[in-house]
Every structure is written in structure tokens, then in C-alpha cells.
Amino acid sequence: MTQIPDRWHDLGEFIREQRSTARLSLRKLSELAGISNPYLSQIERGLRKPSAEILQQIAKALRISAETLYVRAGILEERATDGDLEGDILRDRFLTEEQKQMLIQVYRAFRHENEDKPVSPGLAAGEGAGPEGVDDASGPDGGSGEEETVAG
Questions:
Q1: Number of C-beta neighbours around residue 125 at 10 A
Q2: CB neighbours (10 Å) of residue 147?
Q3: pLDDT at residue 152 tops 60
Q4: pTM higher than 0.90
Q5: How far is CA 45 from CA 61, 69, 76, 91, 150, in A?
Q6: Domains of the chain
Q7: How do residues 91-108 score in pLDDT, each as one tens digit?
Q8: Taking burial as the number of CB atoms within 10 A of a residue's CB, which of 35, 44, 65, 94 is the most buried?
């Protein structure tokens, strides 16, 4: 008997936690994401391998980054987290110097408050909504049979 890959179980658990945090029922999230209630339930239990499109719909409904779900599903590699946020703020042409300094002060205050310890998945903001070149022929309800069922 094949074990359910931890990745799918962890992804489903993460989606369930996000749904709970957002105070959404399974039915409401499935409605917002445009997928069937049973299919979402199977994803949350780690029984289905959702496509990139389905993950994007779920992320949008949860108001979280699709990139977060792509990384957890193994579609994208996690980005290095040693970006230069302060440098990015300072280089932004659309902010005044006063706005830049204010943003940096707030950022530093939050970092200090959290004692520079990671408190979230730590994904850098993506350039686009999803991975390029991902072939996704599934329908929005997830019931087209294109998704893989994880052997359990």
C-alpha cells in the first residue's frame, strides 16, 4: 500500500488551517474558489493532487499568495529569503523620501517585535500570479479527471 505523500497531506492541512483562520466553512470556501465541496474536502485530506489553476483559485478565495500554495505543492521552489526589502523600498520611484523612511521604520519595528525570528512561510512576493509554463487542462470544478488521485 502506497503512503500518502507528506507534501499533499501538509498542503491540505495548511489549506484547512488558512480556511479556519479566515473563518470560512468548507462549503463557503469551495463556493468562493469555484470548486466542488467534495473535491476541496479531498484536497484538505491530502487525497487529491490539485492543479496549479485550482491552487490559484483556492489562494484567491483565501486571500493568500498563490505562490505560497505552489511552494507547498512542490510546483515552485521556495525563494531565498535574504532579499533586500529596505533597498527595494529605497529604490522605489513611486514613494517620497518621507514615505520610504516611514516604511523602513515600521518594517524594523515589526522585525524587532518578532525578534528577527521567522513567523510565516517567508515567501518573497512573486512577479506573477502563477508559475509560467505549467500545463493545466483541468476544469474549475476539479472534476475533469485531469488531476491525479493520490494512492492511499
A1: 10
A2: 21
A3: no
A4: no
A5: 18, 15, 21, 44, 11
A6: 6-78+142-149 (1.10.260.40)
A7: 888 888 889 889 989 988
A8: 35
